[in-house]
Amino acid sequence: MNTIITIGRQYGSAGHEIGEKVANYFKIPFCDKSILTRAAKESGFCEEMIQNHDERPTSSFLYNLVMDTYSFGYNSSSFVDMPISHKVFLAQFDAIKKMANEGPCVFVGRCADYALNDYKNVINLFIYADDDFKIKNILKKEPSITTEAKARETYLKKDKQRASYYNYYSSKKWGHAESYDLCINSGKLGVDRTVDLIVQYVEDFEKATK
To answer: Which structural domain range is residue 93 located in?
Structure first.
């Protein structure tokens, strides 16, 4: 196994769970929140700050201006002049590349496909689902959300944030088929069959690239 897998996902599509199961099947690292921990450790940012900007580009000029009066370990003049959101993105970008260089793994979100654009051993996936599937999944997974209306509002908001982040920092479009190698509607197959499909795709890719 030499393949790195990146997964973009709609909120509520079970993309995180699917990614975990794929990683477990191949017995390779699953990289989600660990990207933030690694980025914090190697950049000098505190992890809370990286979490606050996680897949969420800030449009607050004042916040960026205030935070830019601090130094976070990178010391080039161009880096110092960047908005804090850009610095956090670069810290994650570097962390993703370093983690990929250590061997095959599964990345979820955070423009990992864009960060690894030059890598030949990468498969980029996008997991989406129909409205009913996402609503049922959100209601099941998040006890604080108790109505279909709130579940719908939540995934629309989260997906808007993810699209904004991805479209801002990458040269591709979030959720557009041409940005990925394979797009799967998890609502059609369910979680386990979607995992099976991805496993088959990865195994076929490995055979084709030997």
So the answer is: 4-208
